Amino acid sequence: VRRLRVELGDRSYPIFIGPGLLENAGKILISLGFATPPVVVTNPLVLRLHGRVLLASLEHAFGSIPVVQVRDGERFKNQTTLNRIYEGLFRARADRRSWIIAFGGGVVGDVAGFAAATFMRGIPYVSVPTTLLAQVDSSVGGKVGVNIARGKNLIGAFHQPRAVLSDTAALRTLPAREVASGIYEIVKCGAICSEPLLAYLERKLAAVLACEAPAIVHVILEAVRIKAEVVAHDEREASTRTILNYGHTIGHALEAATNYRRFRHGEAVAWGMIASALLGCFYCRLPAEEAQRLITLIYRIERLPLLRGVPKARVWRALQRDKKSRDGKIRMVLLRRLGQPEIVDNLDAAHLRRLIADFLGTADERR
Ligand SMILES: NC(=O)c1ccc[n+]([C@@H]2O[C@H](COP(=O)([O-])OP(=O)(O)OC[C@H]3O[C@@H](n4cnc5c(N)ncnc54)[C@H](O)[C@@H]3O)[C@@H](O)[C@H]2O)c1
Question: 177, 302 in Cβ contact below 8 A?
Fold first, then answer.
């Protein structure tokens, strides 16, 4: 098991990564100073697959453990679910000294984390992420929240966990498409900050896709290290944290333009990174062979859902509404070199629109 710390002053916290953390969770949490039983928030699938191991360990350490279940799926990351969690917390007689364990993928993490941020004006929580995406991305950085009809993640807070326990053995039950979705976020970390991470993925892709230790532990650790460092410099995304959005501006637009149905988040980001690599050649002089290297790696991971039929006008409208755009100008993270991001916001809108329309029209054939 590897361990690292997210440095945020008095809100710093440890992240544990490796196989076998579920069965040792109780012991680890006791050693971190937790003394009372947590309320575990999870969903039925995760509970069925991995609940027994985690709960046995927690019960051994803390006694009987209340469990609050939420429904599985992005469409349940909403205020109704949030209310159910509050209700479950009251039923479990939780008060302001209670704490939560968020046990599941990014959906459970975001909504349970937001419940922790708001219940009695904020109680502690520990993240036990069980998807690769949650282990490399959503469990690190303290962004928590829910979706509303107007859009994704529009209601939320910054609330850092007290600890993160990422058991890589739990990933063995994850469908291949979910594994791939997480790997794209690891590729993103390499693209913005670490060419060696990309090289490692190129060498060990088969082992990483199979979630085999030590390869999977290594890439999660590196991705988390990168995210943790960026977040430590800029917790609230005033400046440098933006680079974590590489591939996401276009990725989000693709998701929105297809009503969040065609792509997993990571897959949309993968297309976004491919488009951004090409834009990087154009706007930031990213060498063509470096762009190609990144694109080749992305294509090796899985067959991405096609872009055919994605409405170009909707993609463009979504890009203009992006949270990062300022005064109507689209801001985007592009690459100068692999591992060297640049935030650009002086793009000529008409030109950019043409490039993106071109990309959407030709990308399926070029792969
Ligand atoms: N807070 C952040 O900084 C941040 C960052 C990135 C993404 N997110 C959010 O994360 C969410 C996506 O997370 P996700 O990709 O983990 O999706 P998810 O939570 O929906 O999980 C995907 C599916 O895998 C199942 N699952 C979980 N663990 C499993 C396991 N070990 N074996 C088999 N199945 C398992 C889940 O029940 C679900 O059906 C989105 O809501 C996104 O907005 C948040």
Answer: yes
